[in-house]
C-alpha cells in the first residue's frame, strides 16, 4: 500500500497547500498539470526533489507561503502541516548542520519538537565532540539557504545521522531544500538516500 495519505483520485488539495505527487508508474506516463500525479513543477524543483525523481522514489511535495517574520522555520512547518495534513509534529524533521571536532561538517536530522543532543550526534558519527556549524559554512557546504536545508541533494555529501524515532513512522516530512517547501517520504528512503546512520540523538533520550 502506498504510504501517503492521499488516495489515487483527482481531489483538490486543501486551500493554500500545493501538492505535487510522484509515483513510480508516472515516470513513463506523467500527467503534467492533470491531477495530483505529476512531476515536480519548476517552482518546486530542488536538488532534493531531483534526486528523488532520479532514484524513482515516491514522494510528495508540500508548498506553503513562508512568513519571513517567523522566528522558527521548523515550528512554522509544524503549524502548517499539522493543520492541513493532520500529521503528528514528531513526524516533521529538521535538518541541522553540525561541526565535528575533526573539523568536518555533518548533518543531524531530528523531530522539530526535539532538541538535538550534540554529544549523541557526535558519538553516532564518530566525531568526538560537536558544535552547531557556522551558518555560512553550512550554506556553502549544502548549497541550501538556512531555514531550507534538506538532508537530501546537498552540494557536498555530509555524514548524516537520523534520529531513531523516524523509524516509528511510515512517512516523515523534512525540508525539500527551500523555505516553505516540505518533502513527505518513507523514512527508509530518507535514510538510504542520505546514507545516514540511525541513532537516538534527541536530547533526553
Features:
four-stranded antiparallel β-sheet, five-stranded mixed β-sheet, alpha+beta, 5 helices
Account of the protein in words:
There is one protein chain. The protein is 21% helix and 23% strand. It is an alpha+beta fold and 205 residues long. The strands form 2 sheets. It has a 5-stranded mixed sheet with strand order 5-3-4-6-9. Strand 3 and strand 4 (105-111) form a beta hairpin. The chain is globular, with a radius of gyration of 16 Å. The two termini are 32 Å apart. The model is unreliable at 1-18 and 20-42 (pLDDT under 50).
Please outline what is shown here.
Helices cover 21% and strands 23% of the residues.
Write down the overall geometry: globular
The major sheet is characterized as: 5 strands, mixed
Note the beta-strand portion. 15-25%
> What structural class do the secondary elements suggest?
alpha+beta
Q: Count the beta strands.
A: 9
DSSP helical segment count: 5
Report the order of strands and helices: EHEHEEHEHEEEHE
Kindly provide the radius of gyration, computed on alpha-carbon positions and rounded to a whole number of angstroms.
16 Å
Strand order within the widest beta sheet: 5-3-4-6-9
Helix content class: 10-25%
What is the mean predicted local confidence, pLDDT?
80
Secondary structure elements and pairings:
Elements: E1 18-22, H1 47-54, E2 59-63, H2 73-85, E3 93-100, E4 105-111, H3 118-125, E5 130-132, H4 135-142, E6 159-163, E7 172-178, E8 181-185, H5 187-193, E9 197-199
Parallel strand pairs: 4-6, 6-9
Antiparallel strand pairs: 1-2, 2-8, 3-4, 3-5, 7-8
Amino acid at each position: 500500500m502506498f504510504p501517503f495519505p492521499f488516495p489515487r483520485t483527482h481531489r483538490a488539495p486543501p486551500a493554500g497547500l500545493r501538492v505535487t505527487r510522484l509515483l513510480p508508474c508516472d515516470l513513463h506516463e506523467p500527467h503534467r498539470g492533470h491531477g495530483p500525479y505529476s512531476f515536480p513543477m519548476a517552482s518546486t524543483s530542488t536538488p532534493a526533489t531531483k534526486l528523488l525523481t532520479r532514484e524513482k522514489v515516491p514522494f510528495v511535495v508540500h508548498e506553503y507561503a513562508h512568513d519571513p517574520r517567523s522566528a522558527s522555520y521548523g515550528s512554522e512547518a509544524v503549524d502548517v502541516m499539522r493543520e492541513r495534513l493532520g500529521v503528528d509534529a514528531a513526524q516533521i524533521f529538521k535538518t541541522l548542520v553540525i561541526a565535528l571536532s575533526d573539523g568536518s561538517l555533518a548533518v543531524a536530522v531530528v523531530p522539530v519538537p526535539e532538541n538535538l543532543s550534540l554529544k549523541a550526534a557526535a558519538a553516532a558519527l564518530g566525531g568526538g565532540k560537536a558544535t552547531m556549524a557556522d551558518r555560512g559554512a553550512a550554506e556553502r557546504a549544502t548549497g541550501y539557504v538556512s531555514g531550507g536545508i534538506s538532508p537530501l541533494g546537498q552540494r557536498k555529501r555530509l555524514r548524516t545521522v537520523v534520529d531513531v524515532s523516524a523509524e516509528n513512522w511510515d512517512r516523515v516530512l523534512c525540508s525539500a531544500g527551500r523555505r516553505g517547501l516540505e518533502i513527505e517520504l518513507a523514512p527508509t528512503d530518507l535514510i538510504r538516500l542520505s546514507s545516514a546512520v540511525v541513532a537516538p540523538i534527541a536530547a533526553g533520550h
